Amino acid sequence: MSTCDDKINVLSETLLYTRKNISFQTICDGYTELYPVIIDGRNETDETECQQWPCDNIYTHCDGFYNCWNGADELGCNSSPLLNCPLHNHICVSPITNQFMCLPITKANDGKIDCLGATDEQRLCRVKCSHPNLLDSTNFYCIYQNSGKCIDSKNLCNKENDCDNGDDEQFCRKESTAASGSLDWLLHNTFPTNVENFLRESSTSRPKPSTVRFTLNEKSHLIKNSRTYPTKTRSTFIPILIMPPQRQYRCFRGLDLNVWLNKKIGISSGTCLCPPSYYGDQCQYQNQRVSVTSAFRTLSDSWETPFVIIISLIDNSDERIIHSHEQFTYLFIRDCELKFNNYFIYSTRPKNQTKKYAIHIDIYEQISLSYRASFLFPITRPFLPVHHRTFIIDIPRSDNVQTCSSRYCVHGKCIKYSNNQQANSFCRCEPGWSGRLCTISHNCTCSSDSLCIGVSANKRSICVCRIHKFGTRCFITNSICQTNDSSTCNNHGQCISSDAYRTSQRPFTCICSKGFSGDQCEIEDNKIILSFNKDIKLSQSLFIHFIEVRNKDTPLRITTHQTIPFIQHDSLIIKWSRPFHIVFIELSKQNYYLTSVEKIYNQSSTITKLIQPSDRCYHISELFNETIFKFHLLRRIKYYHLPCQNSSFNLSCFYDDIHLCLCYDHLETRLTNCFQFNHSMTFDCSGENECINAGQCFQETVRCHKRSMCVCPLCFYGRYCQFTTSGFGLSLDSILGYHIRPHTTITHQSNIVKVSIALTVIFILAGFINGILAMITFNNKKICEVGCGLYLLGSSITTLLITILFGLKFWILILAQMAVISNELFLKIQCISLEFLLRICLNMDQWLNACVACERAITIIKGTRFVKRKSRQAAKLIIVTLLIFNITTLIYDPIYRQLLEEKNNDNDDEKRIWCIVDYSPSLQVFNSIMHIFQFFAPFMINLISAIILITKKSQQQSNVHTKRNFREILREQFRQHKHLLIAPVLLVILAIPRLIITFTSKCMQSSNESWLFLIGYFITFIPPMLTFVIFILPSKFYKKEFKTTITQYRTNVTKRLQRLV
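Above: the chain's sequence. Below: its structure in token form.
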């Protein structure tokens, strides 16, 4: 290696990288690129142990170099051969006839020289290392030299014998007999023969590229796109004025103007036009000023929202003077990489040292003029004549405006600053008012459709213009986006005119609707339709890796994340606007499937692919034995062609820790093609994590991403990981939500939705009938003489409430997800209240049933010592205590509930509004504990009470009938008191399925499991629906009272009807 590198004084950074890093593309290509590496005591390079590496492959075939010593990789590559030779023959010059001849490939590199210059024996002269700046021309071998000699091609045909036997001159054109200087003489001696040209070219090796890029195209090593995608840049035209040399330096930082005072008599005067940062008659003095460099970021809900940003230099006086301000528009998809440089001068010269100054930033949405946020950055070093501040502003959500009441704003509203909500706030004044407390009136001169937000130090109104309007008072219309022809945005794209205060290459920007891209939304996105073999186990989501092969750079990898909807768990549609050549999907961590390989990118194409098990990419540990697997990468990579050549594997791809490899057909064999791939690449959405429940935010690119996704932890799913699919926290929204199809009638909904509707109707009818009959029975003075009756009366009331609340919750969910209901205020009210009230009622019903069982057990234990009055008093106290306890332990739930709008990445018209709850980690633990307690405590009370009822009663009878068998007594007591046992035993039995589902199925991970969890959810509502069945029908006393009450109602109704008649 030093032989090559020593000839070059300085190695480039790229070459140093090549020397130290293993490249699949240059392994075993006949040229040494890598520095030697000591492995197991031996010096290894990229050209050692190459027995298993085919020298003729996608990177060496027809590349102009003999990478195979016998030249097999260059056979048939010359489109205009000098001699028509049979297949598998090289052209060379005969050392006997000095004419072209055909040499079979079997005679090349056989150790015997058959061609002049030994062009068939490349090992004799070629330098075995590569260097992009090294030209090796010493490749002509003197055949009859005793010691073997390679001479420079420059010495061929120089009329001197550099080889002992004149090999270098024997093929050269002989001296012409024509007269010197004649035309024949000139033609004979000026133009070399084909043989001379051939030997000179064969003896001069052009520099071998040390860096070879990944490619899919064999011959040209180029990947051509059907469309060129220019890089979007924003440039500013700055005119350059050339002034006479004698006047260039009179106005130091300004423009020298000649002002005609009287043109007729030729009187003029020179003056200097100074920029705002300088002043003086020659612009020789600097203004005190503040320089601001700012960049902005938005969350995904505002990537396509144009903003108006006003940056002002203010002081802390009562007038809150705006000394200077700058206004510009910001659109993330257009300006995501742009930095804004502005400077602000003080209204007085010099500035008032007794005042404190700050940079105040206001942000408005340009389309609606809705206020979004304000930021405050104090000037911390006021003594500096020029103060520089740099900001990165994160524009908050639209619902994040924090108001306050700590300040008395007369004609305005108190607003907290977004970057310091704890300490700082200000009065956002109404139009026509200004000052620290909005007490100073001024005449607003803005247009009627704009927003007047203040007044500057020179008494001019500061106006925020609507979209397509501009000017200091917003009276000028920008009509570029008002044309209806195809010169602006196609396919329903939204046209946004460029900022009038900044120059731009384009007068407008298009916000394309989903499914289209391009400067004018003229390009339809590629569509990839995936379906999966039934043997492939799918997870809740998958990664899609798009690889773009680039001519002079490493492959560009862009990754997106897609949730697999439960309603279409066996198929998926992906729309993609960027160029790509290879597509992989990753179903679970490092579980890859090859989806598509296209040598040429086809714009606006549709790819339909059924993912088969054979498309899976194997890890090398599955392909190689343990010995090869544990080899150093430099040794192991030289075996990578073997898996693809092994037909028993039927491979399409495989991977190791740093590569993804494809199998491809080359001539009559299958070979491997690998590129580097980071298997653990992650993004954090630039610190703007929108995901909840510990979801990881993921974006397709580091900069200017158009999509952000949430990679959810186990047991969570949804666009923002907003749903849990585990344990007691499982809600109807998370089980059924994604099964409901928006904008689709009930008759065309999925089967699980139809079954849920049918079950809900049955439950509602059963609940109302059960609740009404139970209320009729237990609203009875005789029954309510003891605590048990009060508990059952309370249970009847909660049954009716549960039925009403469950019905409302179910139908609101159905109608909201079908996009029938979209009123956010209504949805927010029901979100906060329904789930909270439903949980309270369910918990109360469980506790009241447990109290019934408990009191019955106490009655058996106390026997004749049982006092009805005390029981009734205790029941009233317990019911109130339970109600307070349940409300108190759930009061946090409505506080943390909120609406979340989820938009479909591939469809602008499809959006879902979810009711979610976002607990802190500590509160999540508390919530789980309370769920478990609220379930197990009543469950255990019912279970223990049932056992006490049977055993205690049996013991009492056993004490009386000492001669009888205890088992017989137990059986008899069960028959006699079955009405007391049915309720607690049945409640325990109904709770067991839910218990089993909760603890045996950790998460709902597929559409099939939705049915199981839906059953578990509906089981929760069965006990409240069975109050009449489990408490009244088995009891003779309650049944008698029920019949008596029904008779009374019937009599009363009959009497009233008779009166009406």
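The longest strand covers residues 907-917.
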